[in-house]
Amino acid sequence: MVRITGVAAVTDETFAAEVLSAEGPVLVDFTADWCPPCRQMVPVLAEIAREEAHRLTVVSLDVDHNPQTQAAYGVLSMPTLMVFRGGEPVKSVIGARAKARLLRELDDVL
């Protein structure tokens, strides 16, 4: 599993507590080891986790090891980045992005 510095890994078992019950917005990176664009997102997400920690929590979910959560949210392509707020998905983007573009796309939900 690809580990991202400053980004917690969540599982099917911890998703509800870590994401759905979180106080503020949570960006979930649905990822897989075999996915090159997912690996491209590692430094981007690490920077966002560090720089936006005051307003956003970033977590990662390996879809190969956590199929229930993947299926529950209809995630078919990796990487899928989904923002949850108040236990509900409020924004979803698919594919690798540059940091500036991703932050622009997420700005309305942060």
UniProtKB/TrEMBL annotation:
Keywords for this protein: Disulfide bond, Electron transport, Redox-active center, Transport
Pfam families recorded: Thioredoxin
SUPFAM superfamilies per the UniProt record, alphabetical: Thioredoxin-like
InterPro entries associated with the record: Thioredoxin, Thioredoxin-like_sf, Thioredoxin_CS, Thioredoxin_domain
Record PROSITE patterns: THIOREDOXIN_1, THIOREDOXIN_2
Gene3D superfamilies, A to Z: Glutaredoxin
Family membership noted in the UniProt record: Belongs to the thioredoxin family.
Name of protein: Thioredoxin
The organism's taxonomic lineage, starting at the top: Bacteria, Bacillati, Actinomycetota, Actinomycetes, Kitasatosporales
